[in-house]
Write a structure and sequence with these properties.
Helix content is 19%, strand content 27%. It is built from five helices and eight strands; from the N terminus they run αββααβββααβββ. The structure holds a DNA duplex.
Length: 194
DNA sequence: AAGAAGATCAAT
DNA sequence: TTGATCTTCTTG
């Protein structure tokens, strides 16, 4: 499994390198096909820019901690805390289901594999991740609710696309969203250019 | 005490 | 394109 060292680099590097890794949650697992990077300082789109509680989270937790946020009154979004020369977060935006598909279908109340984890709010439902996991670790060896696994066959770096982050109103234009080219489980098809 | 904004999703 | 739904933070 990935250890804390993976998350002590720049958030953008962490976000890019997570593409292709597997997120394992109990008997379920999915291949990460979409992420976004946020920087704790100097990024107006990051929670740390306008939420004191997010800044406190960064100071109180270690690299690899789960930052789980309740969005739009309806959905939990899961991020990994990055702490190094540049602190920040990686938002987990989409997975390609790999294992435990029936359980995901039941939690999502959907059949189509492509719709189970194709968005940050969907994947937390499919994997039963919620506010009770806020502060839990993705990288602790014992008693972890979830972790990252290096895949048997790594993705071709040339298949990773960088483009603009989704759903934000500030700091648009940075190519800090990463996705796997042509993958059916990516939430929003990347825009040309960028 | 009240209001606004927000890293979404599914149905129309 | 719109409605659902609620936490955090700011303002009065």
């Amino acid at each position: 499994m990935l250890d804390a060292g993976f998350f002590t680099r720049h958030p953008v590097d962490c976000a890019r390198d997570l593409i292709g890794m597997e997120l394992v949650r109990g008997r379920c697992a999915g291949r990460i096909v979409e992420t976004e990077a946020y920087a704790a300082v100097g990024d107006e789109a990051a929670h740390t820019h306008f939420r004191p509680s997010a800044r406190e989270f960064v100071t109180r937790h270690r690299a690899g901690a789960a930052y789980v946020y309740f969005n739009y009154g309806m959905y939990w979004l899961a991020h990994v805390l990055v702490k190094g020369e540049t602190d920040g977060f990686v938002l987990l935006r989409a997975l390609e289901p790999v294992r435990g598909v029936p359980a995901m279908q039941k939690r999502r109340n959907r059949e189509d594999i492509r719709h189970l984890c194709s968005g940050p709010g969907k994947l937390t439902i499919a994997l039963a991740i919620d506010g009770s996991h806020h502060g839990a670790s993705f990288v602790s060896a014992r008693r972890h609710p979830f972790h990252f696994r290096v895949p048997e066959s790594p993705v071709d770096p040339a298949a990773i696309v960088a483009d603009e982050r989704i759903g934000i109103s500030r700091a648009k234009g940075l190519p800090w969203r990463f996705s796997l080219r042509g993958n059916a489980c990516v939430s929003v098809r990347p825009r040309p250019s960028a």
